[in-house]
């Protein structure tokens, strides 16, 4: 049994423990923390001696957590997270309206909706910096959930529980075909008429990839996918080269050259494309992140973005 009187472990020691467990290496943990390897090894050894337990099973140069070590790491993560939240809140009080925001968004969303908003926000808060990460909606959701991102922009509905959201776009997908395509003269095209077509889709880390395939299967066929990309303009160019068809959101379609690609509404069924801003309400958000969410809601609701 661990004597409570010897539990004099500090935050620094817990951070060392977490980093060694994460990287499974004293050397790599030392490099990550910008300290020497003997320092981190000595710290872990002192913890083991004070607690009377073995935290790591050392076999040659390989290490792994013991059962006791796993318990310590789990609790240490909670303690360090609480400490960091406290420190962040105190920093906000000392540095009001200063900070850094990490925002994730799919590539096709950024250019259409956010340059003006970010410009207006920077004008109002010049000391708040914004870092943008372009990824598919699935990764944006996962990184917002984990805390790697403060705020995300994604396709709704979200698939991760616990994320708060603000919806700001409600559109649907259009069909893109080559001007010589058999459907080019139609006013609209049912999804069921695309059974024999070759599809150009977004990559698997994009929500639309799964959504389009799911809708095709629901109406009775498995789409034949010939190419996947993360860039909407490359997808439209594939259609312009008569290599296949594509389904893209209305906003994106407005950027496509209508002389090279024919765009028509997709019906039976209509596939919605709704966008939202997401964040974790149960995790501490800096003033900068909270203010960006409020500001973006204000601008997008007014239609000025």
From TrEMBL:
Residues 9-66 form the HTH lysR-type domain. GO terms for cellular component: cytosol. Keywords: DNA-binding, Transcription, Transcription regulation. It holds the Pfam family LysR_substrate. One of its GO terms (molecular function) is DNA binding. Belongs to the LysR transcriptional regulatory family. NCBIfam families: trans_act_CidR. This is LysR family transcriptional regulator. It comes from Paenibacillus zeisoli.
